[in-house]
TrEMBL record:
<dbReference type="GO" id="GO:0005506">
    <property type="term" value="F:iron ion binding"/>
</dbReference>
<dbReference type="Pfam" id="PF00067">
    <property type="entry name" value="p450"/>
</dbReference>
<feature type="binding site" description="axial binding residue">
    <location>
        <position position="443"/>
    </location>
    <ligand>
        <name>heme</name>
    </ligand>
</feature>
<dbReference type="GO" id="GO:0042448">
    <property type="term" value="P:progesterone metabolic process"/>
</dbReference>
<dbReference type="GO" id="GO:0006694">
    <property type="term" value="P:steroid biosynthetic process"/>
</dbReference>
<keyword id="KW-0472">Membrane</keyword>
<keyword id="KW-0503">Monooxygenase</keyword>
<dbReference type="InterPro" id="IPR017972">
    <property type="entry name" value="Cyt_P450_CS"/>
</dbReference>
<keyword id="KW-0256">Endoplasmic reticulum</keyword>
<dbReference type="GO" id="GO:0004509">
    <property type="term" value="F:steroid 21-monooxygenase activity"/>
</dbReference>
<keyword id="KW-0408">Iron</keyword>
<keyword id="KW-0349">Heme</keyword>
<keyword id="KW-1133">Transmembrane helix</keyword>
<keyword id="KW-0479">Metal-binding</keyword>
<keyword id="KW-0492">Microsome</keyword>
<feature type="transmembrane region" description="Helical">
    <location>
        <begin position="12"/>
        <end position="30"/>
    </location>
</feature>
<keyword id="KW-0560">Oxidoreductase</keyword>
Amino acid sequence: MDSTLIISPETLTLYCIVAVLLLFVLKCTLGRRQSSRGAKALPCLPSVPFLGSLLHLRSPLPPHLLFSKLASRYGPLFSLYMGPHYTLVVSEVTLAREVLLHRGKDFAGRPKMVTTDVLTRGGKDIAFADYNTLWRSHRRLVQSSFALFGEGSSKLQTIVLDAADNLCSDLQACRGQSVDMGPIIMRAVTNVVCRLVFRSTYEPHDPELQQVIYYNNGIVQTIAHGSLVDIFPWLQIFPNKDLAKLRECVYIRDKLLTTKLEEHKLTHTPGEPRDLLDALLSGSGGEGGVTDDHILMTAAEAFGAGVETTSSTLLWTIAFLLHYPEVQERLHAELDECVGRDRHPSLSDRTSLPFLESVLSEVMRIRPASPILIPHVAMQDTSLGGHDVSKGTRVLVNIWAIHHDPKHWEKPDQFRPDRFLDGMGKRITPPSYLPFGAGPRVCVGESLARIELFLLLSRLLQKFHFSVPYGASLPDLRGRFGVVLQPQRYTVTVKLRH
């Protein structure tokens, strides 16, 4: 009689899953033993093998509000297990500055996750790539490329003001009607990024623009859902609609961007960059190790990071102006006095428009686009707040909690732009204000984002008055959490001021 054991493929798969589960249980147990060796014990959420603290994180609250609630119980620095991953949550500015600035290089790592690997070709971007020599070369190249379009250059200003004029034309056509500004602003900001990255300007219904909006929205929506494969990578063996959708959108994105890159290789002149792709091409290769993949992922990140955050911040600003019409009146008066009606606002007007700058700052404080920063990872054994931190520990910085801390902000839940002005009406930046992060991992596009927000908002308010449509409700200010914190959709009536 043949004694060979025959195992079906289904049974073998089950055995493999059980084996992986046991390995994760062992890893979690070891992690708990290791974490107990620190100088002082950190408050830790209850956890179970394999799942970690996930059962105790079930809540209808979005993560930034849930972590803020937990911080009020456990303190501004507490720990939890995201599956097998030992994670610290920081909700106070002194601790945040220690993570981001004072020990910035110690905590400059990024976790390796399935979705971000799909999104970035295995970490060839800036935001999600791990901290190493190649990343530093890549970041320097991106910073120098962005500098060609930032302060001191008229290139970005021209691009944004052209987009602002097109945006104003779209809104003028809707004047007197109830309009959802979300798609109009999203299209305008997408056009800015398209022109900045690869010098293409689109009409509203251009098929290529619609393709860009389609893949960008698809990526944002699938990432926003969150995915257990980022906690338990072995779950990739099962069908996953979100992961399949993400791969489809990334394929469309990369096909379009590759075509643009190949066209640029044939036509660009070194030393004479026409756009971001030209600037990146001129500085790539050589000893730095920056490849075509890095260039493509930088271009892709300009869409992923630049469109959603800027669009959401502008929509939040208008939503708050509808709630606070006296702020809108004050902005109109400042623009009329300092800019007038006969010319576009320009970057040279920034110092003359401190209240407008303070309104933008207050919007990014009270509704930060990234309420929780991208996770940091300890790259070596270090410490935080007097506690030992082991290499590989993940750290989440809760910007929402820091921006709403009553110890640093008077009545933090109230919209008060004047908190960013001193007694002389000059612009100030409180130390607890970190909308773009800080340190080695500070947002590389911060300067460009601030320029774009200033020019778009100043042009819109110079030209239009925004009000709540007759019979409509004020915008819901609670927001919806995804890749960024977005306002709920709302409608507005647009009226020409002049």
